[in-house]
Amino acid sequence: MATYKPVVVQAFPKLGERITQDTVYWRGYKTPVQIKEFGAVNKIDFSPVPPYNYAVTASSRIHIYGRYSQEPIKTFSRFKDAAYCATHRDDGNLLVAGSEEGSIRLFDINGKAPLRQFDGHTKAVHVVGFLSDKYRIFSGGDDYSSNLWDIPSATEIVSYSEHTDYVRCGCASKVNADVFITGSYDHTVKLFDARTKSSVMTIEHGQPVESVLLFPSGGLLVSAGGRYVKVWDVLKGGQLLVSLKNHHKTVTCLCLNSSGQRLLSGSLDRHVKIYSTTSYKVVHSFNYATSILSLALSPEDETIVVGMTNGVLNIKHRKPEERKEKSRKKRQPAYRTYVKGRTYMPKQEDFCVSKPVKRVLRKYDKLLKSFQSSKALDAVLEPPIRLYTPEVTVAVMQELHRRGTLRSALAGRDEKQVNLLLTFVARRVIEPRFTPVLVMVADMITDIYQPVVGQSAIVDRQFLRLQEAIGKEIDYQEELLEVLGMMDTLFATFTKKRATYLEENKSNGLTETIETNMNN
């Protein structure tokens, strides 16, 4: 008896992922390190000076982490309630933070007790930061006000009450020491100048604003709120340049890389999107376990830190560059070691022992070998095969058809099994690689179960889905044929024009030659 030959599953080419320079660059991070904080991480801020430690604000504490430390090297915990938005000054010596009780505290990075406390807000202060002159602080709170403070005297310089809802984000200009920007839940972004008593520009974002970011040049402003990230031209009076809608949920944080050529946005949909600042197209994306609240990149993009709603801090460090120095290779065995004995011919008195090769058959092959067609079809309709390797399911159906037992394998099934079969066929019949086999299977199922149509609402619904899928595919094919006809007509027209042009040139050349000869 001939040995059983396993079912041959046809291999189809897979579309390869497009590998770009951004893909290679942003994949160059190690496996992330995760640290559990006491509460949701609402702010991450890197020190602008070496060794680039970063401050993490979560719950009622501010932790300072070293670049590679998994434990905080310093903690500021002089808060009665939640702390917000701990931000470094440009020289890295001072740290300012808001709080739920409405006060603002200024810390020396090497001390513990606050150097200054600024009281003036009546509700929680969610956004604080330094102006670029290093001697003033701006703040925004849930009392709808945006204030400016003097560090040496610990007094309020000016207070703006132009927002009509909570002020939850802000940033300062690096170019002009008097300019700062705040974003509010009243859907507006306001640009303030400390030399005036009111805002100098108001931009309507259209959604509650969660984060704002000013480019280092000071000419472009990015606002995030709802599912939208919008880029505005400040120098043109707040003109909208582009509106990006690549997230599925609210965008909560924004960040620029060290070169300013890539913009990062984090969202509650658990994704970090990276955009090119020239085309504003997504060039890469990171996926995280839970919703993202805060995001920061270290100088030179060496470390990316993400804070999440469940209090987990996700830290990725860049892999070190491979050294090009050639290491000494271990001496390999000579070639003769591998080919030794391969050319040996057995002598007449030698006794040859052959070791049989054991072939392991899959479950459906074992069932096909024992002629259990219906059970073999059931085996390839199990979720792991049906969902992830549908080509195996189709290959077994094709083998059953070759044997002439496909109709018997499809017949005699209950409501649940017929529903499963029709679901698979309706989903995969539109794929060109499966269409020939599954159209034949659909015809057989329709012939077998036509007498019982109308007895089960579930089966009837699946038949309607199959009809709808095939109808849509036919419509698509008809539209494609129409487009092909149009393209053939256009190409034919171009070909005729080109041929006519060549003929005219030839005839003109011939006429000119005849005229020249006659003149001579």
From TrEMBL:
Keywords: Nucleus, Repeat, rRNA processing, WD repeat. Its main location: nucleus. WD repeats lie at residues 118-159, 244-285. The keyword Nucleus applies. One of its GO terms (cellular component) is nucleolus. This is U3 small nucleolar RNA-associated protein 15 homolog. Transmembrane segments: none annotated.
